[in-house]
Structures are given as structure tokens and as C-alpha cells.
Amino acid sequence: MRYVSGKLLERWLIVADLPRRKLALSNDPKVVETVMLDRGGVFPKSDVVHDLLVPLIGEGVFGQPGGTRVKETRRIFSRSLATIPDEVMRAVTERLTREYVDRWLRSPGGRVGISEEFSRLTVDVVSEVTLGDRFSEEESIRFTRLFFEYHKKAAALLLMIAHDDVTTRARIIREMGLSPIGAEMRELMLRRFVKPILTGARPLESAPFALALAQSGRMSEGAEGEQALLDEIAVMLLAGHETTASTLSWLASELAGRSDLQDTAAMALSGKSAPGGYWREASPEAVADALAKEALRLYPPIGFFLRETREEAVFRGKQVPAKSFFVIAPWTLHRHRSLWSRPDEFAPMRWLDGSPAPARTSYMPFGLGARICPGARFAAVEMETILRGLLPRARLTLSPGKRAKPLGNLTSRPDREIVLGISERRRADG
After folding, report:
1. For 168-220, how does the pLDDT look when each residue is reduced to its tens digit (9 = 90+)?
2. Is 19 known to sit in a ligand binding site?
3. Of 112, 115, 269, 356, which cross-links 249 as Cys (Cβ 3.0–4.6 Å)?
């Protein structure tokens, strides 16, 4: 993802040789739909994803290839989020955003590591809304830093080029050093969220996600039940915050480098008319939505969906053998020369200029089909609320130094901390 260019952004299908398998990557809309919808069960999620995530989420739903239990669990996730009114999400997000921005504006030297801070903020939002509690400041800092270390070490490519031998793959995972990081993160979640719920110290009514699991018969006593609850809470917290945190980090970086765009966005998000009618008198909600969508286009949180072929397939006249890897990459789809105008330009106005909506196979930051992210609505409300609480109050500026690139091992989070200058907007504007 850091070095994608040229043919990958122009071709419809590429089939390449790995040491022991084939690897196919497709941008063709029909192929994308066939693989992602997977109506015949021929393109399950790769075991590589499962192996990389087990130390952190155990047998949680996100790492599973598919099946009836996975479908049922995804419905529980969707149902629990659907019970939370948008007003509740907004109220919690507004309060926490105000708390964080207050602290950022007091930061020494006016510099903030925005990637870590957005991770902490969004973990707090997700945990408080779905589980009724949040980490302490010390736990929050430790949790987000551990997660960043996990991302840096979880190299999917090493498993993709390795032999299928289970022992070899286990050795590679062990040498990545994921287990101790995952164990410490799980312990933090166990103490803060799981045990209080299981012991009754926190009422289920205050934790909608745990309540939905209980109502579906997914909560049981004993060590096994404790670990099963921990697995799914880990998925909710990690997947639930990562999308928003990653997107907001890249969006803040883009806006910090475009003071004109940032200033007009701040005005529009405050309900004021921007000079020259830049945002076409769009509502604050529409402006926030356009900013988020464009950040999701250029920096899709999941840069690639890794599938495997259970049967031989033929696409565009090319043979893809069984047991091949099949990659559908929003990273290339969202930047494809034939699918987008000015594909490499950060241009949020493209979402407000009356252009036709993109095809669902050319814009899929949350996936497509049965495996689409159940938290997409939650993320949209959260991002809109954070942007409306941040930009009208604070001016963001770039700091000197090497620019971040997508890490790309698991998600598109930056490969290094994005440090931005942050100052009170009213003071900066005189």
C-alpha cells in the first residue's frame, strides 16, 4: 500500500506468482462483486487474517472465515448497535471530544501526536457507548501504544509467502512477537470491561453490546465463558475504533497541509457561509460527511480484503487456481484511473458537486456484501461529531519531518505518529 503505483492503478486483473501460490488482485467491477459477495462460498476470508488476529481477539468474529455462527454473531453486533440512538452516540462523542480538544489546546509546545490521540478518543467513545465504561488515562495510553506495536509486527505478507505447514506458520507468528502484546491488551480489556460485566458490578443495561450477547445466549459462566466474551468485546473495541481513528488521522493531516480548505471547512461546520460559496451552502452535516468520505476514499481503513479460492476460477480469461490468494483492495479501487477523476487529489467537493454516486464496487471503505462492517453508521455519526467539535475550535498545522505513509499490515493507519501543531482558532484568527 505504501508503494502501489502504475499498473495496479490501471489494470483490471493481475495474477502473480508467490513462492507457493498464485496471488490475484482485481479492480474489475464484476470480479470485485463476485469475490466480495461470494454467494457460492468459494472466496472465504483467508486463514492469514485469522492467524494474525488470534493473539489479540482469540476466536472473535472478525478473524473467522465464515459460517453460520459468524453470521449469527454479526447479527448480534448489528442489533446491539441499532439499539443505540444516534442522539446518545452524539452526546457521548460531543462530551469526550470537548474534553480531548481542551487538553490538546493546553499541550506543551502546541504539538499533539494526533494518531495516538484519535485512537484514545475513539476507544473511549466506543467503550462508553457500547460497554458503559472507559479506560483510565494510563490504561488508555498503554492500550493504544500496544495496538500500534501490534500493527507494526503483524506482517501479512510473511504468512502469504510461507509454506502452508501449520508448524511453520505458528513459528512465524511466534517470531513476530504478537502473543505478549495481545496478552497484555486482553488483560486490560478483561479487567476494565469483562469482569465487571460478569460479576454484576456493571449492570448489563448500561452495556448494550454485552446485553445483546446475553439476550442471544452468548454469555456463560466460568473461564471459557469469560474468554468468549472477551473475544467479542475485543472485536468491538478494536474494529470499532480503528476505522474512525485511522480516517481522522489522515483527514487531519490533509487539512493541516491545506489551510484554505481547513478554514472554510471550520466556518461551514460552524454553520457560517464560507467565502466564495466554497461549500455551496451545504449544511454542517453535509460538509462533515464530504470530508469523511474523501478521507475514506484516499485512505480506506482496510486497504485490502484478503480472500482465498476454494475452487479454480477463471476471470477475464485468466486462470486462478484453487488455494490462491485473492485480493480486493479498496486502496487501488479508490484510486483507479478509470473509476475516478483526479484520483490522487484530496477533493471533498466531489461529494457535493452533484456528480453521480460512485458504483458500490468502486467505493467500499467498509466492505461489501454479508461481511460489510456493521459499525459503518456508528463511525459516520462519530466522525461527523468529532469534526464539528474540533475544526471550529482548533487550527491544525503540519510539523517538520518525514510524512507518514500507510502501515498497511492490518489497516491503513499511519506508519509513524502524525504530529500536528494545534492552536485556538479564535486566537489564531485574531
Report:
1. 888 999 999 999 999 999 999 999 999 999 999 999 999 999 999 898 888 88
2. no
3. 115
